[in-house]
Design goal:
By secondary structure, the chain is an alpha/beta fold. The chain contains 32 helices and 10 strands. Helix content is about 60%, strand content about 5%.
């Protein structure tokens, strides 16, 4: 039955169909069931007892007594006695006391995370629920399969890990805490032999002891490379322990409704700001950016080598039993010519095992690629990988040969899991964004224009309309502002901006197009702030603006960041003006007709309070959605949400589902701010739950929330209510 033949649903029926049972554990981020609460309390008692014993062994009973006294007093409504005790504590003892409570909360938090994961992993997962609702929509005719296929080709959830130096935990401590959680889980496992309990209990005591002996603070100030290594620590864990299983579950759920996710689809990707966020951070230099990109890629390639080595033990299919495709055989012949030493070492034992042969060549190319990046040597075609597509092509050849021979079980098994990892992470684990303040670009252009002497006065004296007209004209031109003069004549601001653009070009040449995709302009007030960075990118060849009769090229995209209430209010008109400029529109077309917009939450919350901020972000998204549709552009929203409510924090999946209808058409980026990364990803199981919930929400919103579910008059009533709430909230704030 089609939707046209069904009677129209009432508003109440629509609301009831869209209503979800509140999940206290997911919303509160805590354990809620009696069973898990009992286990959690027992675990906390065990860990805090071991912690107290460690304190007493190292610092004596006096410290343990002080800790207990402070803990008791902190729970009293009147804190006068607590202040008296703390004021009387000498500095050396205060440091040890602070360490004692820090370790206490670390242990409590990690076991709470463990039990939260155990509680939330029971029952139907988020993907199953989403696919069930999609199946119902297909059955009733409100969603057709062609549209669903189109959505699946574009759907992409990209969490972006941001740097937060004051919250950067030592990886040593993170590893210890994870081992604590694993040991607690072993102790609680009813299937585990009772005879192993004493060993597990001793191991837990040992880990707690090591935690006390470990300095949780770095002895030097964290640098951008330290922040990047922390991000890499989490990304490597997610790449091997979370994503393959999660994407396999997505495949399985889609299979229940007769839909297949293309092997090359990228429903899940990762981003990073470590090494790319320059706004207000003078430590992020072009050299640091390249250093961190090298770190990411050597780490990512190392992870891929390990995955390939693991699967090599399973790729034992013999041509005496199965048939390899002609394309695979031809590629092996080319591999033998390009890598003769490798061929000689594997041909005798594995000559009739084509899949193992191919993956052996893949392994060597990955190793040689890593060596090339470490030693800064030239690319050797056929002997190492220059771009992600080359690796994907080799792996896909193996899978396609299996499927062509009718081996669906193996073709959709380990090799597909292997393919999913580089598809999600690339060779560098995450795509870097570059962010810089809009004022830096205008300062650079002021030096370049003033050096040319073409303007009637200094560039800095131009009003906003004059600057827009000048930069629009300049953006459409192909002439270089820098001319033939050397960089010594440019000035400090121009040199800094052009060096950054050159660094981006070097990164793209070295690592491929996925390494850096977006240049984010913070404090975007008008369209000249975007025009300015495009002109600077043109100077180093990142952009060719094209003409009315020739196509533009753009190796990176450009995104305004709207942060304040005033900027959010003008977001729609600004985007309209931006896309109405012919030269800029050609740049967007060169990027696949995709325009990214970043929305900031913290500054608007500081401006107007939480309610007004959240409502203004929502209204801005509606405007941006409508403008993008008008210009035939796909909108990709990037939400700069923090951990606290005042910075837009809250359950990610629910935030995605609350987007205005039609604003999410497949791809979305959301920051994972430093202070909450460990809470969401410290344990692989918890990381899986968070990523699955968000991915399911992106898929559901993209497929089922394309048009308004409610009549216009109902929405108008809610809009008026929210206008009043926001206004009163701002007034009170």
């Amino acid at each position: 039955m089609t939707s046209a033949s069904k009677p129209a649903r009432t508003t109440e029926e629509i609301l009831e169909a869209d209503r979800r049972e509140p999940d206290a554990a997911r919303f509160a981020g805590a354990v809620s069931s009696d069973e898990q609460l009992t286990s959690l309390r027992a675990s906390v008692r065990q860990l805090t007892t071991l912690w107290g014993e460690a304190l007493e062994r190292h610092e004596g009973p006096e410290l343990l007594e002080l800790v207990e006294r402070v803990r008791r007093l902190a729970r009293q409504p009147d804190d006068a006695d607590l202040h008296a005790v703390l004021d009387a504590t000498d500095p050396a003892t205060a440091v040890v006391l602070a360490r004692a409570f820090t370790g206490y909360f670390q242990l409590v938090n990690i076991t709470e995370q463990l039990h939260r994961w155990q509680e939330q992993s029971g029952g139907e997962g988020p993907l199953a629920g989403t696919i069930g609702r999609i199946a119902a929509a297909l059955d009733e005719g409100s969603l057709d399969r062609e549209l669903l296929t189109s959505v699946l080709e574009r759907v992409e959830y990209r969490p972006v890990f941001t740097a937060h130096p004051t919250e950067a935990s030592r990886r040593t401590v993170l590893r210890l805490l994870r081992k604590v959680a694993e040991t607690v889980q072993d102790l609680e496992d009813p299937r585990r032999p009772v005879s192993m309990a004493p060993r597990d209990e001793r191991r837990l005591a040992e880990l707690v002891e090591l935690l006390w002996q470990t300095d949780e603070l770095r002895v030097v100030r964290p640098e951008p490379s330290d922040e990047a290594r922390t991000a890499v620590y989490y990304l490597r864990s997610i790449a091997t322990e979370v994503v393959p299983d999660l994407l396999e579950e997505l495949d399985r759920q889609l299979g229940t409704i007769g839909v297949a996710m293309p092997a090359t689809a990228r429903p899940l990707r990762f981003g990073t700001w470590a090494g790319g966020d320059r706004d207000g951070n003078p430590n992020v230099t072009p050299g640091v950016t390249l250093e961190i990109l090298r770190l990411q890629h050597t780490s990512g390639l190392g992870e891929l080598v390990e995955l390939v080595e693991e699967i090599l033990t399973e790729m034992t299919a013999s041509t005496r039993v199965v048939e390899a495709s002609a394309e695979l055989q031809e590629s092996l012949e080319a591999d033998a010519v390009a890598l003769p030493i490798t061929w000689e070492s594997i041909r005798r034992l594995n000559a009739d095992e084509p899949y193992r042969l191919k993956l052996s060549f893949v392994r060597v190319r990955l190793l040689r690629t890593r060596d090339r990046l470490v030693n800064d040597t030239p690319h050797e075609p056929g002997r190492d990988y220059l771009a992600f597509d080359e690796l994907l092509r080799d792996l896909t050849l193996v899978r396609e040969s299996m499927l062509a021979a009718g081996d669906a079980l193996t073709g959709d098994g380990a090799i597909l899991r292997l393919i999913r990892t580089p598809v999600a992470f690339g060779a560098g684990l995450a795509t870097m964004d570059v962010r810089e303040h809009s004022g830096k670009h205008h300062a650079a252009l002021a030096e370049l224009f003033d050096r040319l002497g073409e303007l009637d006065g200094p560039y800095a004296d131009l009003g906003r309309p004059e600057r827009i007209e000048l930069l629009s004209r300049e953006m459409a031109s192909r002439r270089p502002l820098t001319g033939s003069a050397g960089s010594q004549t440019w000035g400090e601001a121009a040199t800094a901006s052009l060096d950054l653009m050159g660094t981006i070009r070097t990164a793209l040449d070295t690592y491929g197009p996925d390494v850096i995709e977006t240049y984010i302009v913070s404090m975007t007030h008008d369209i000249d702030d975007l025009f300015a960075v495009v002109v600077l990118a043109r100077e180093v060849g990142l952009v060719d603006p094209g003409t009315e009769t020739s196509e533009a090229t753009a190796r990176i995209g450009f995104a305004p960041l709207f942060e304040t209430v005033a900027e959010l209010e003008s977001a729609g008109p600004l985007l309209d003006a931006l896309l109405s400029d012919p030269a800029y529109r050609r740049v967007v077309k060169a990027r696949g007709d995709v325009q990214e917009i970043m929305l900031g939450y913290s500054d608007s919350s500081k401006d107007a309070g939480i309610a007004a901020s959240q409502w203004q972000v929502h209204r801005a998204q509606r405007q941006l959605r409508d403008v993008a549709r008008k210009h035939g552009v796909e909108l990709r929203l990037f939400h700069g949400r923090g951990g606290s409510t005042g910075r837009g924090g809250g359950p990610t999946a629910e935030a995605i589902m609350s987007q205005p209808y039609g604003s999410l058409t497949g791809a979305i980026k959301i920051t994972e701010q430093g202070e909450v990364i460990s809470d969401k990803y410290a344990l692989p199981g918890l990381g899986r739950l968070n990523l699955e919930a968000a991915l399911a929400a992106v898929l559901e919103a993209s497929a089922l929330h394309r048009t308004s579910l409610l009549p216009a008059d109902v929405l108008d009533g809610w809009n008026a209510t929210m206008d009043l709430v926001a206004q009163q909230g701002q007034t009170t704030y």
